[in-house]
Design brief:
Low-confidence stretches: 238-248
Number of domains: 2
Shape: globular
CATH superfamily of the largest domain: 2,3-Dihydroxybiphenyl 1,2-Dioxygenase, domain 1
Helix content: 10-25%
Strand content: 25-35%
CATH architecture of the largest domain: Roll
Strand order of the largest sheet: 2-3-4-1-5-8-7-6
Number of strands: 16
Length: about 250
């Protein structure tokens, strides 16, 4: 239904500042197309792509590519989805957006807007990206919304708070009730703390030690407000894998 995960889309009024921030952390800028009328840039660590948009929208958003978007939009309408915006026209770049129960924006577009990243590239100094986490009021209620969109459950933790992780069309999506989250956030397993500390000392990035989310040892705030949480290990790493079931 979703297609394929493309990017974590954020809004910024100063693309240069955000672009510089991510590049100083070891992300690389990708070649982007000219489909958008607004200023746009993309950075990647080889796995995660972050789209920097100089336009007003309900950011951040998790953005997916679906080549048959018009057909899919019709099917979604038949299933009761209500769109925040919908543009389907032969002479326009087709896109749509809708929100989940916690008002997080899910965007779908008809084609890629940047070149594919080099999958063999090294991670940023943040380390290995393992989850995009959405703060939710009720994890089970949120999961009922996401399950039809992302039917593959990767992992579940019941205590101390319920945390569920889904494979959302190629993106590891977490649902969390943690009060430490102020918005959709990016989680990394960091193996080189020294490199992180050197970058923080050299560039003065806004950060907090032990920010209170899932045992993270560091949070770093991007200029546009995106929170990056750094961990010694995946906080669901020791838990069981949920077995896939045959729904046919």
């Amino acid at each position: 239904m979703l297609g394929r995960f493309l990017e974590f889309s954020v809004q910024t009024s100063d693309i240069g500042e955000s672009l510089s921030f991510y590049k100083l952390l070891g992300f690389r800028e990708l070649d982007s197309g000219d489909v958008w009328p607004h200023k746009y840039a993309v950075v990647s660590d080889g796995t995660l792509c972050i789209g920097l948009h100089d336009r007003d929208f309900e950011a951040p958003a998790v953005t997916f590519v679906h080549q048959e978007l018009a057909k899919e939009a019709l099917a979604m309408t038949d299933h009761g989805f209500e769109f925040s915006y919908l543009q389907l026209d032969d002479d326009a770049f087709n896109e749509l957006g809708f929100t989940d129960h916690d008002n997080h924006l899910i965007a779908m577009i008809e084609a890629r807007t940047f070149s594919k990243p080099d999958e063999n590239a090294d991670n940023s100094i943040c380390g290995w990206w393992f989850e995009t986490t959405l703060p939710v009021r009720d994890t089970l209620r949120a999961a009922r919304f996401w399950a039809p969109l992302a039917p593959e459950i990767l992992r579940v933790r019941e205590e101390p708070t319920t945390h569920m992780r889904f494979n959302a069309a190629g993106m590891s999506l977490g649902l969390s009730e943690s009060i430490a989250l102020s918005g959709p956030s990016l989680c990394f397993r960091c193996d080189d703390k020294e490199a992180v500390w050197i970058a923080l000392a050299k560039h003065g990035f806004e950060h907090h030690e032990f920010p209170g989310f899932e045992g993270a040892f560091m949070s770093i705030k991007a200029p546009e407000g995106t929170m990056l949480f750094l961990f010694d290990e995946d906080f669901l790493g020791e838990l069981y894998e949920v077995e896939e079931t045959d729904e046919s």
